Each structure stands twice: as C-alpha cells, then as structure tokens.
Amino acid sequence: MRYSYIMRICVTGARGMLGQQIVEMATSLGHTVIPWVRPAADISQVESISERAKHDAPDCIINCAAWTDVDGAETNAAAAYTANYIGARNVAMVAASNGIKLVHISTDFVYPGELQRPLLETDSTDPKSVYGSSKLAGEDAVLAHCPAAVIIRTGYIFGHHGPNLIDKIASGIKSGYNMPFVTDQWITPTSTTLLADASLKFCDSDAVGTYHVTHGGGCSTYEMASYIAELTSGTGTVTRTTLGEWEPIQSARCQAVGRQLAKRPVYSVLNTDKYYRFASLEPVSWQDAIRTHLHVSST
C-alpha cells in the first residue's frame, strides 16, 4: 500500500507480539515509530500518556496494550480491567483531546459464540469471561471518548515475536507429543502481519467504527492442529476431543495451580467483508497464513 504521507505513530504494548510486528512493519515503510512502554508511558495513568502525546505529537496511536491472559483474568479481574478498560479509556481520552487518530485492538471474546455463522460487527455482544467483559468495556470507553477511533476485533493471533499456539503445536509435533484438540470450537487463526498491515491502513484513513480483521475461512481447533501436523516433520500426533471432554480436564489443571478456566466462545469465526472492502483486498486463507508463518512452500 502507498501511504498518503509519512506518519508519526505511537504504539502502546510495543514489547508484545503484535506491537513488535507493528513497530517493525511501520519502520520498514519509513514511518516514524515511537514505542510507548512502561514506565515512560503507562496507559493506566492518563497524565503519563497525556504528557507523552504532547511531547511525541503522533498522527496516530495504535493501542495494542492489553491484559491477554484469558484464564488469569478470571482471578485477576482488577488487573484485567485496569489494562483493558482503564488503559483503553485513557488512551481514547488523550487521542480525542489532541486530535490524534486512534486504532484500538480488541477481540472475538466480546461475543457469546452461540451463532453458528460468521459473526458481523453488528451482532450482539455478550462476553462469557472476565477477559471478554474487560475488552468490551474498553471498546465502549474508546467509542464514548473518541468516536473517530477504529476498533479491530480479531482472534487467535500468531506471529514471530512471541509464543503462540501455532508454534506450540509445531514444536509438539517435532518433540513427539500427543495433543488433543476439540472438534466443536470454531476459530480463525490470524497473523500479526495481517493485523499490523490493517492497523497501518486504518491510521492513514478516515475510517471509523468497528472492523473484523482475520484471515479467510474458519476451522475447528482440531482442524487447525491437524493442518499444522501435516506441514511439520515429527512423530507427534493430534487427536480428536470435544469441549465436553476437554473442559473438565483443563479446569482441573487450572485449579491445581490456583487458576480458573475461562469460558471461551464456541464459535468465533468473524465475517470480514467490511474490512476487505475497505482495504480493496482479497483475504488470505488461514491455511496459507500458517504455511507462510512456518516457512512451508506451497506445492
């Protein structure tokens, strides 16, 4: 994509997997990137980021900072809400008061996951976890304080700058592990490369409101794991299970270490027509995105 001008972009959560990808991509495209990381820029303290915004004078803020430990949020609700609601609210207030474009990253966990079709941006939200509730509260605060913001809803993120499920499965196959995955939970794996590109496109646009950004198609977690196994050399295996079988086992594992298993949407494949119309692009399938991530050539 050609940008209409070189932008000054501040990235919160710049040490995270997505934040690092955005910093890398934006820098490679010639933009001036200012990472906002603690303690110099603490989104839980509005004065901290207000001072940084005045000093750095960005054209756009991309808010990647978040509490992302889904199960951990169940027993650490205050910390999750501090990052996902208070932090998002503060960034939105600062962006609006300084006339700065804001792109805010959110999640498919804001949906209940009960519909069995790709979800629209206009579908009802009803999160079933503390994590999802805190992210929805953050979305509401962003739009209340900065109506010109863009919110990106996405899910099951993977990339080269941090641990992720794709690499964990590939590593398990190489190491000879047997890994159960469910056949009745539906998702779309999403690369940080896609999300970084979308975030930068929104920075340089008049777009406002909520957009779904994922790769094309959807799959069960078993189907995804099986595909990764096909691409990976090793003696490990992927076996079928169901949510009814998996949840009690995983819940017991969480309780053994003082954690609580969060409810996850059963179906969170997102309809991305709105985003791809905006970007004038055809979606890359989740399979092709995983192949690219694992450096496997198509045959």
Quick take:
With 299 residues, the protein is of the alpha/beta class. Helix content is 41%, strand content 16%.
Q: What does this protein structure show overall?
A:
By secondary structure, the chain is α/β, with parallel strands linked by helices. It has a domain at 8-164 and 189-217 and 269-284: NAD(P)-binding Rossmann-like Domain (Rossmann fold). It has 10 helices and 12 strands. The chain has helices at residues 17-28, 46-56, 77-97, 130-145, 165-175, 192-203, 221-231, 243-256, 273-279, 286-293; strands at 8-12, 32-36, 60-63, 101-107, 150-154, 157-158, 178-182, 186-187, 190-191, 209-212, 219-220, 237-241. A 6-stranded parallel sheet has the order 2-1-3-4-5-10, with helices on both faces. A two-stranded parallel sheet has the order 6-9. It has a two-stranded parallel ribbon with strand order 7-12. Helix 3 (77-97) packs parallel to helix 4 (130-145). It is globular, with a radius of gyration of 19 Å. The relative contact order is 0.15.
